[in-house]
Fold this sequence. Notes:
By secondary structure, the chain is α/β, with parallel strands linked by helices. The model is unreliable at 156-160 (pLDDT under 50).
Amino acid sequence: MTKKLQIRDLTLRDGQQSLFATRMPQSEIDKLLPLYEDAGFHIMEVWGGAVPDSVMRYLDESPWTRLRTISKAMKGKSLLSALSRGRNLFGYVPYPNSVLEGFYKEAIKNGLNVMRIFDALNDIDNVRDSIKMINDLGGIADGAVCYTVDPKEEEKGFFAKLFGPKQKKIFTDEYFVDKAKQMEALGAKIITLKDMAGLVNPSRAASIISALKANVSVPVDFHTHCTPGYGLASSVMAILNGVDILDTNIWYFGGGSAAPAIELIYVFAKKLGVEVEANMEAVGKIREALFDVRKSLAAFDLQKDHFPRPFNPLDPNDLPAEIDALFDSAITAAKAGNEPELLSLCHQIEDYFGFPKPNELVREAEVPGGMYSNMVAQLKQLGASDLLDDAMRLIPKVRRDAGLIPLVTPTSQIVGSQAVSLALDRKNGKPDYSTPSMQFTSLVKGEYGHTPVAIDPAFREKITGSAEEKAYDTSKYKEPQNPTLDEFGGVKLAVNPEEELLLALLPNVANGFLKKRRSEEYQAAQAALAAEAEAKRLAEEAAKPKPEPITGEVLQAPMGGTIISVNVKPGDAVKPGDLLLVYEAMKMENEVEAETAAVVKRVFVEPGQVVGLEANLIEFED
């Protein structure tokens, strides 16, 4: 029986987030969706992660509109997934169950099928409620175990002081399997090994994936990134060791700091006799469209002048014999467990196709690429770019002091920012941790959950003022205000449950986003009222009888003034000298008399009316 490999396509969420700062607008996604309908991906990751924040903050778009639009276009042909940070949901602080359940309920109602749930600390307590909620609401709970590494050999002195020189490794295969088994027991229908920093090397991919397959009964998914250079080779090892689902991106959104490209995975799988469950002809159409989409994102593309060379894995002419041989040799090395050779060959393949080279600094520091770039930006903003190397060297210390936490959002940002602060403390001759951030203090206090290694009580007391671990108290959660906006007609800022959830999750970003929506609606309503009033006026004007044309001789006002009295009416016969009307002008009453004999046809004025010079007063019959 042919082994099958299911694909979770990350292009529309993690792919564009990793490479282009989540700046792909809905208009570009709309162009791709008709092509995705026939691609046959088992799962498409389209939501969660940075999407709810970024599409509001940078694109002025609604996250809910994005999810609904994709769901409607896909017509159920691929499962749609999102990434949730467990208790932190899509934000950066712990939220109460009311917020979690509200988001999950609305997401599933709007077309979401799979929620990948992880916790930055691998604290099972932080994913327990989310797994149950997703299952109860009819979704598919995907339990993600975050991969991380033990300190390097040269850093073991820290553990020797705490636990003695014989301290065993913590992040063993058994550690990850245990977390996976606990998630499965809670109801997870998929288990993902989530390698957010791309640090799973091929040998660990082989050992952990095979261990997971032997110990859980649900499908196993492997998620990695190519930043430090392991992604492609480790994905090959995952396939060899029975992984059920592999996360990939489509060509121009693959490689570099993103997941491997499906096109390269397809070549490897075909040679291994593994059937990739995707319509590669449809994938090819998406690939061609993505070329222009990527060009439109040039402002956020660090590789905008160095695209991968075009490649169609279904066309034998696109794979020269010498490159085809590299794939064969890489498979031989993988089966032999020759990791250095496998990595070398995969790097040659990626280099031929023009993918970015491995980031040696990220690999050495063992941090996510996004964490590194955030530190660079932070130091540049502080005018202290020269401290980058010092800050990078301090990451292991900060991580250990904080309980040897995995580095994934939000802990990667917290640790990276604190390492920068520590470098500045040392430069300025201050004691370490003179300026702990509020988030770092909350982490050490215990508000983010239980850390893999217990934090030294003395360190906790130094940072938080108390040696006691204190969990986040959800009863202290204060729901953001939903004010009435008088300037927009007295409407609420958030006018429906979806908007109320955005306000609860990301109050600062949602506040500005929702005010724009209310302003637009108010202006549109005012414009509609003005248009309605104008239409009514025009209708009334049109309904008035048109005045009879003047055909006879007309008496006009010799001066401007106010009519005091009118002494004739239509049909009256007048003779010279008869008084026709009296009007006031220049503070005097003026009498207007008939100059000839005539019959009055029309009188244009009435007492009290103000008239101007040469205004029509009376018309006489012909």
